[in-house]
Write a structure and sequence with these properties.
single chain; 143 residues; alpha+beta; 6 strands; 26% strand; globular
C-alpha cells in the first residue's frame, strides 16, 4: 500500500515548511486567519470538480490525487505545520499547496499523482530547490 511517509523525519522539515510554535498558538492558527479546517474544506470542494471546470477543457484532479492531498494536509496539520497560504487545483489535474512568508520564502507542493508530489522551495538570493516526493522516497535537486 502506498502512502505518504507519515513519520519520516523529512516530511515537514525536508519540505522546509513553516512550523507552528506549540507554545504560542494551536497548530491550526495562522496570522492571516486561515485554518487547516478551511484548507481541508477547499480540498473537499476540489474533489467535487468535474472536467472542464474552468470552461477551457481543463481536467479535474482525480479522486486519488485529491485524496492524497487530503491525507498530506492532515499529516502536515498533525505535525504542527502552519496552514498553507493557498490550496488550488492546477490546470493539468494536480493540487497545489503554497506557503508564502513575509521574508520572501515561497514553498509550493504540487500533488501530481497518488502519493506523489513535486516540491519547489524558493528562498530569496538562493537557487530554487526541487524535490520529488513519492510515497517513502524523496529525491532532491537544486536549480
Amino acid at each position: 500500500m502506498q502512502t505518504w511517509a507519515t513519520r519520516h523525519p523529512a516530511l515537514a522539515s525536508g519540505l522546509e515548511l513553516p512550523q507552528q510554535p506549540w507554545a504560542v498558538a494551536a497548530p491550526t492558527d495562522k496570522p492571516d486567519g486561515k485554518t487547516w479546517s478551511q484548507q481541508i474544506d477547499k480540498l473537499l470542494a476540489i474533489r467535487q470538480l468535474e472536467d472542464d471546470w474552468d470552461g477551457q477543457g481543463t481536467p479535474a484532479p482525480t479522486v486519488e490525487v485529491v485524496d492524497s492531498a487530503l491525507v498530506l494536509a492532515i499529516l502536515l496539520r498533525q505535525d504542527g505545520v502552519i496552514p498553507p497560504t493557498g490550496i488550488v487545483q492546477g490546470v493539468v489535474g494536480e493540487v497545489l499547496f503554497d506557503w508564502q512568508s513575509a521574508d520572501g520564502k515561497y514553498v509550493e507542493v504540487e500533488v501530481t499523482g497518488p502519493y506523489r508530489a513535486e516540491v519547489f522551495i524558493h528562498q530569496p538570493g538562493q537557487p530554487i530547490k526541487h524535490l520529488r516526493w513519492e510515497a517513502m522516497r524523496v529525491e532532491g535537486a537544486t536549480s
